[in-house]
Amino acid sequence: MANYLAQFQTIKNSCDHIVIAVEDVSNLWPTVKDRFDERLPFRRASLNNKTRNPVFVENLNAEFILTTDSRLRSRFPQEQSLFWFREPYATVVLVTCEDLDEFKTILKPRLKLIVQNDEREWFIVFVSRAHPSNDNAIKSAKKVYDRVQVEFSTKKRERCCKFDIHGPEALFWEDLESKIMDCVRNTLDRRVQFYEDEIRKLSEQRFMPIWNFCNFFILKESLAFMFEMAHLYEDALREYDELELCYLETVNMIGKHRDFGGVEHGDDHAALLNPGNKPLSQIVQDDSFREFEFRQYLFAYQSKLLFKLNRPFEVASRGYSFVISFSKSLTSHEHKLPFCMREVWVITACWDLITASSSQYKAGLVAPDIEKEFYRLQGDLFSLGRVKFMRLAYLVGYGNDIERSPVNSASLSMLPWPRPSVWPSVPSEASSEVLEKEKLILQTTSKTKHFGIQRKELPLEPTVLLREANRRRASLSAGNAFEIFDGHPSMTDGSGPDGSSKSPNSQKKAGVSMSRTFSSPGNFEGSPDRPMRIAEIHVAAQHALQETISDEDLWKSLSSVEEFEKKYLELTKGAADNYHRSWWKRHGVVLDGEIAAVCFRHGNFDQAAKSYEKVCALYAGEGWQELLADVLPNLTECQKMLNDQAGYLSSCIRLLSLDKSLFLNKEREAFQAELVRLAHSELKDPVPLDVSSLITFSGIPGPPLELCDGDPGNLSVTVWSGFPDDMTLDSVSLTLMATFNADVGAKAVRSSTAMLKPGRNTITLSLLPPKPGSYVLGVLTGQIGQLRFRSHSFSKGGPADSDDFMSYEKPARPILKVFKPRALVDLAAAISSPLLINEIQWAGIVVRPIDYSLKGAILHIDTGPGLSIEKSFVIEMESCANLSQTEPDTPNSFDSQNGSPTANKQLEQLTLEDGKINFPDWASDMDSVIWVPIWAKSDSLPRGSSSVAPPRPNMVDGMRTIALNLEFGASHNQTFERHCSLHFSDPFHVSSRVIDKCNEGTLLLQVILQSQVKATLTVYDAWLELQDGFVHAGQGDGRPTLGSFPLAVSPTSKGGIIFNICLGKTIDENGAEKSESIVNIRYGISGDRTSGAHPPVAMEYSGSDASRKDLTFRSVLVLQRPVLDPCMAVGFLPLPSVDLRVGQLVPMKWRVEMLKDLEDKEISKHNGEVLYEVNANPENWMIAGRKRGYIPLSKKQGSRIVISVLCVPLVAGYVRPPQLGLPNVDESDISCNPPGPHLVCIMPPALSSSFCVPV
After folding, report:
1. Contact at 8 Å (CB) between 123 and 93?
2. For the whole model, what pTM was predicted?
3. Which of 61, 590, 982, 1107 could form a disulfide with 17 if both were Cys (CB 3.0 to 4.6 A apart)?
């Protein structure tokens, strides 16, 4: 089967579509051929993939070929079975006939013979040539077509269709395409099954000695090619993937030695996208293929299918992985391959993948993450080709033109040298080239950066090239390093042939080595065993590469330094641009730095500065200071050449801000000297500059400086200087930011000239009186010559022995606090317990100075509504120590702030003038209390409550407000305002209850007195003024029945008084009826003003107890008729004895009866009628009658009436019945209002025949 490889490849190249055979029985094909060809390709088709799932394909290519064509008739049976994919997928039989007898005798037997082959998929197209005007011809053709359908079509499958040449064609072409697709689908399924069976048989033999990969390959690729022709690209790609896995498994089998390939001319250029690079017959080897060509062949077809699937991203992804893995294979066979074959192949492979995938990729058609990943892969391919290209350039002697940057050093120093079996030698005719190369090497000098910065250059080689090349020479050993380096010990460190010292032994070895000047060309051809010099190595590599590289563009890029830089920039820019459009933007910025290095070397400082700025921003943001120290001097030099003074100064500051270990001290001093020189000499206009990374500042460790409003002060600030030497500042300004209000602007604090030493410095600034609030450090600004600097960096104090400690502080610590007046003094009410209302009481105001003198303070007092100050009495002011000693157990003790009592107890009487009080001098620095006589007035009488409903205290009714405004300070510029709330209350709360009803009709009324103040109350007398309907029993003077006076009531306790009353009519002297009862209480109070309620101020000034005046308290007491004396009765009448059922009308009846005459009792009526209302749960009952109305009822005793209402129960079970209410009659006048029985039993509705369903 392997002999058919050439034919197989020829068939693949010539056949890229399916074939549909045409059996022209009636010579119709020339007539209909053009119309059939116009339908190609098939725009939409449904085929089955390998797993027999339907797949819709578009633009399926096909070709109609007559069965008599030589392309179909010249095939041998073995070829037909081997290359079955090119056989017809359907057979179209073209027939026409207008005579039924002719069909039976001639056409039918012939058609039977044609369609008897079961392996072919066929169908018949009956062509009707009858003209529309010839009815007989149309009828005859129709009869013949009907007979054809009967003979060749079945119920399972319709195999006939009719094509009317002169009729409409739309329906015919749809039917034709449908039948063709059915045939193609069936044929494709049958052939896929055939190939799978054959492939399975061969797969089972792959570990046997008879295994032949070529046979397996032809079957496998035939199946893949058949899928490709059918536009089933996914299945074709899967076959090639399986073929690759099987091949790798075959290649790695132990015991079989195979040639790798890649030694022919042109193999250095990758053929990853060119499957026809070499014929298969040229790469076959025994029973398999050479790995070098065949793996590229497989990948080329995979890429071809991926491009047809519009997946260039996957081509790039697979391509990058393939290049990496195949490069390892090239490494393992490198000793058999041409010199640097691996590097050249990788470069061409990356370039081909980049070109093909980028041309096929269309932006915006994939998801954003896929798009970014695609550009990342493009960048990786560019970077890989760039590194390999730099390796070739270094080998041919362009190493001095490659920037020794960290990225290039990291890439090249980890890339091994080529490992040929023998390192190439210098051709005999290349002596002039060697001398020219040596001159260039000797002319090369080390590069010195700006400011005289000298650094050891980073290596671009994994090991010394001189040693590696000579070690691989066949006639030399690797042990004598001194001989290898031509007697120059300095070259053992990788410094090259331009070492600074010359060994004396070099004179002794003149016969076998050249002198350092390399001036004698005669020695070049002297001895073949002489170690090669570095110039000879470069020339030998260049000639060897010329033999290896077949790509003219690649060789041109290595022909000169200019062409090398052109290609180098192309690869670097390509990688950087793609990285910028992907996730790896930092890689793009780093490569921008490599582009900047080339621009810098050629004097394009503008472009170099733009790229260097991006690189420096990246390194600074990531904190890579060592990398920043390598690039920043170049940016500084570019800015100097461009006369960018602001950028140049900023770069000098950034150089000074880097870690001290990165530069020598003299280099850092040079940075500072350049900064000072520009600031004082060359700058014409002021230049602003941010030095936050070099100068940091913070407050002095410890609590913030605390000032009062209007007070001056000095603020000390710690400043860390990162300059290596002393720096003189012409001026320094510090901005303080207010934290209490964002709208308040910054306040600047200025200072004169300051000298900053390296490390820690302390600067003292004078503060003008700032506004009250808390301040933090804002911005430190200053000026050095024409340079205006600013710093935003805050630091916090470090250890005492650390002068260069700097760290950012978050959040900023307050550095200054300026207190408002309210923070210097506190005013509060002395007591929180209630005072007596309608009596003159002492109200205490506590004054607490907080570390601030109140000398000469003035207090303004303004009372709110319902409160007044009694000006006839003096105001007292006493120290808290005196008060606390008098009442040590008082919760509100008024000790001084530090808790120590004052030795001199002070008490002074003050007067109120225009609402103001002047403080005495002794109260300027100690806590004190001001006692003000006030009077809270209330015109309404308090109302008592029933013992059943306990009283609810209402704090709002007795609350009064007093406004305080304190002016203090040296010029009374400090103010403090406070509104204090004072609570006033009646001495008692009165509640009453009837405790007994005697047989003679008298009632015992108990009046309960509850104390509402924090003082002892003594009741001396009490009498009761009754309302209409009640009279006093007994003597009738309204006094209690028992003489229990005096009665003492302790704070928050209760006391009771019993009165004897009875029902009756009472009219006062004026003949008016009383609606309310009033209880009068004469009492006395014993309390202290430091605790709460106390005797009125007038009593304190009256003197002895003999002249004491008792207080009187009056409270309204509402009495109601007792519930044991009703005037009306309401009764629920029994329900009917029959069972109550759902939906049945039920009369509900209530009886209302007068129990006594009502001449003296007025009941709400409407024209002599009483209002009634029936209430029921609507979920349980429906009221059918009138549920609300008026009934006539006489006011005479014994009158009665029955109220009846129809109701309908709605639910079954025990439910509560409706109940009757009298809305206009008070409940106390009704004897009872029962809701009827507790529960009423409601039965379910009776069964009805209309709801029965016969079984």
Report:
1. yes
2. 0.62
3. 61
